[in-house]
Amino acid sequence: MGKRKSRSSKLVARPKKAPRLEKVFTCPFCNHPETVRCVIDLELEIAEASCLVCEEAYCTVPDNLTEPIDVYHEWIDECERANQGAAPPPPP
């Protein structure tokens, strides 16, 4: 006869799925929903967020962990700094 299996061997830990992040955003200039697209090209070292309606755009340098939401929020932060009249932070 075989050995009985323990309960712990039946319970296998499954990895949790990460929540999906947005890839399409609202334009901070014209306020059209779902018109800002983010393109990240690590080979050319450029990340661009651009509006399809008013054609405003923002470019930055990405790293390996950069996601489209990071580029968009960096653009929003830059807009807020410009509106407050603050100087941009020095590059790293």
TrEMBL record:
Task: Provide the primary localization.
Answer: nucleus
Provide one Gene Ontology cellular component.
transcription elongation factor complex
Q: Which keywords label this protein?
A: Metal-binding, Nucleus, Transcription, Transcription regulation, Zinc, Zinc-finger
Where in the cell does this protein reside?
Nucleus
Q: Name one GO molecular function term.
A: zinc ion binding
GO biological process entries: transcription elongation by RNA polymerase II
Task: Give the source's domain of life in one word.
Answer: Eukaryota
InterPro entries in alphabetical order: Elf1, T_Elf1_sf
Q: Which PANTHER family match?
A: TRANSCRIPTION ELONGATION FACTOR 1 HOMOLOG
Protein family per UniProt: Belongs to the ELOF1 family.
The job of this chain, per UniProt, is described as:
Transcription elongation factor implicated in the maintenance of proper chromatin structure in actively transcribed regions.
Query: What is the name attached to this protein's record?
Result: Transcription elongation factor 1 homolog
